[in-house]
């Protein structure tokens, strides 16, 4: 079962000051960087996952307190618990996820959760929530919109990935360029022709990083054609 306080204590038992320093640099927590002020304990993802699984008895309202924490690994553990509980509380978890997106505020947290919560919930439902997120001023909301389509892509549904990537073509943030390029590449793994059709229409307008990510698995000769 587990409890709220013991989860926090367990995270601190696995903390490492040395790892925390490395993670704070890696995840750009310095002044003016995209995750300014984020605080790391220095807990690895496998350790956080094991700890989270010992605390699946927490109620959703307790999990959301963790999700609103200033500590990165507490937010990570909260999302891991939400993923584990998703099958039992899908509607509640999806709604809570959207209401608390401002705390899903680094790319690892987005990439861990967006397709498995938002994408999974919306695959056979109207997608207006994703399009609203894609037009948000918040970079993490826009990344959630793009990465959520990974669940659709894995189920051979590509159109929403293309539509959201089109919305994000003029985005200024490198993290969005990478996310859109990554999702286009994932489409290409399943339907090379569908990705190429999209690229032929839009590659000239794409940020260079988005294009490079999208064509990463292309044959060298074709990559050179797009980059020329």
UniProtKB/TrEMBL annotation:
InterPro entries: ARM-type_fold, DNA_alkylation
Transmembrane portions of the chain: none
CDD domains for the chain: AlkD_like
SUPFAM superfamilies in the cross-refs: ARM repeat (SSF48371)
Annotated protein name in UniProt: DNA alkylation repair protein
